[in-house]
Amino acid sequence: MTADDTRVPMAGDEKVAWVYGSTVLVTSGAYFVWLAIQLANHAPEDIFWILPMGIAIAASMALVIVVTILASIGAAVWSAVRGRFQEPDFASDERDRAIKQLGDRSLLSALSIATAGALILAMFDASGFWIGNYIFLVCSVGALAEAGTKIRAYRRGL
Amino acid sequence: MGGPKPTRVSNRIRDLRTEKDLTQADLASRLGVTRQTIIAIEQGKYSPSLEMAFQIAAVLEAPLDDVFSYKGDDAD
Hints:
Number of strands of chain A: 0
Order of helices and strands of chain B: EHHHHHE
Strand content of chain B: 5-15%
Structural class of chain A: mainly alpha
Largest interface: A-B, 18 and 24 residues
Shape of chain A: elongated
Number of helices of chain B: 5
Strand order of the largest sheet of chain B: 1-2
Oligomer: heterodimer
Helix content of chain B: 40-55%
Distance between the termini of chain A: 29 Å
Radius of gyration of chain B: 12 Å
């Protein structure tokens, strides 16, 4: 086996994209399932949505940090257990930056849609419930698109 | 890893690197990039910047158009 045949670990930024996408999927998904159940039983103005949404956002941020650190430690320990040298995966280069820009463009598109939609809802005097949840939904979809775009670029090229 | 190549730029980096007895890790280290990036370039999954292309050619001591070639629209 040549040096080129040794397994190369997943790029650090790709790992973060996986963790970020999975976390947003779980936390935002849990929030919207909860919201759908509430909507089935209560009028929108009776739903206390601010704290649960805040918890979902805070949980997303905390989980991304914690899971990324734990995944890095776990990968290093696993490599050590198998007697393999784990190459440092925290470095990023011009390819990582190009992929980040690609992901940022997806997120920016979602934020533009969120802003325009929120403006239209405000123009029609929609309640804070609909404006807040609409923005959170579009931003969650944008975050998933960002993570998906990055993962696709790492896997299939750009 | 298989899959379609998203770039029309092909290269002979692997051949030239082997001739000079350089590993992917060696080349990555000389260029200041990750080994994943060298693999992506060799597999045609990433087209490097013009600056990095020149750096690769310099490390491999080969003219740029000997390292990289562009498959035009008629290559399909």
